[in-house]
Amino acid sequence: MIEFDKPGLVSGYVSFHNSTNQSAWQSIRLPIYCLNGVPGPTTLIMGGLHGDEYEGPVAINSLANTLNTNNLVGRLILLPAVNVMAVMAGTRLTPDDGLNMNRVFPGDPLGSITQRIADWITQTLVPISDHVIDLHSGGRSLNFAPAILLHEVSGNAMNIAKRAAMAFGAPFTILIQEDHADVMIDAVVENLGKVMISSELGGSGIITHQTVTLAIKGLSRMVASLGHFPVQNTIWSSQLVRLPTSETYMRSDEAMVFAPLISLGECVRQGDTLGYGHFVDQVDRGPKAYTAPHDGWAICFAGQGITQRGDVVAIVAKNVP
To answer: What tens digit of pLDDT does each residue of 14-47 get?
Structure first.
């Protein structure tokens, strides 16, 4: 077990019993780093809750291997691969129980492996943390213009989160209220009045030079903004937008290939064509145009080209007045 108050850097694994058809007495070993400097705030940084999102795990692993605790104020708890089973399998969901780790919070100490890890985070890590950063990308099915995501909450936690988001320096900072927020780590953190910050740093199940460079450098700037290092004088810009309700998301009515007409992150006007759905298996169907439902920014497209009925095709974020 990790000693959370030990000075300097400690690293190791947290083990969870798991019994499967393939391994009766299996031990799932979740990698963890804890870094302590002089007294100060505690920030929990997590990646890999979904296993097909790679920028977070790489950025956290890089931070753990390059940070000098002699210059650190406070404590950093780093979990680069929270759902280590899904990360190593390259899947969104946990292979063993088929659960989505960021849809089972606060977890269950008597549940499946996914639920027990969520419960451990809820009961052990969140209570000792002042800030929680949960790094995501779009996974295979979505591709986002790189962005920091914030839930709109009251009090000073929102001010701290906004400053940290701007320091990260992603092209966009998105204010969002999610339909399923009550079963995410966000709800656990926010219900305790703590600072919660998330991200969408690309997607399509790949990692690129641009997205991973932003993740590594942005995470360091964000950590500094939260009080762990001196803040850089450079001012980073990030367009503040709001994600509308999910009813405005454009979705496939049936299987098709979505071909964007513009680039992610472009400014659009209501009625602009974002792309076309091609029914390549049907000789009697022409392409279907998908147009912007309102003014804003093309913030997300389908990640894999091929989409099925009900899949998200495109999302347009609105400007924040």
So the answer is: 999 998 888 999 999 999 999 999 999 999 999 9
Q: Is the pTM of this model over 0.90?
A: yes
- Write phi, then psi, for 173 (nearest 5 degrees): -120, 120
pLDDT at 235 over 80: no
Q: Give me the domain span that covers residue 202.
A: 8-241
Do 129 and 278 sit in the same domain of this protein? no
Domain end residue (candidates: 195, 218, 241): 241
Instruction: Indicate the SS3 state at residue 75.
Output: strand
Q: What is the pLDDT of residues 242-259, one digit of tens each?
A: 999 889 999 999 999 999
What is the biggest distance separating any 2 CA atoms in the chain, rounded to whole angstroms?
69
Contact present, 186 and 236 (Cβ < 8 Å): no
Phi, psi of 269 (to 5 degrees): -110, 155
Q: Report the alpha-carbon distance of residue 264 to residue 201 in Å, rounded.
A: 12
Q: Which of 218, 202, 222, 210 is nearest to 53 (CA)?
A: 202
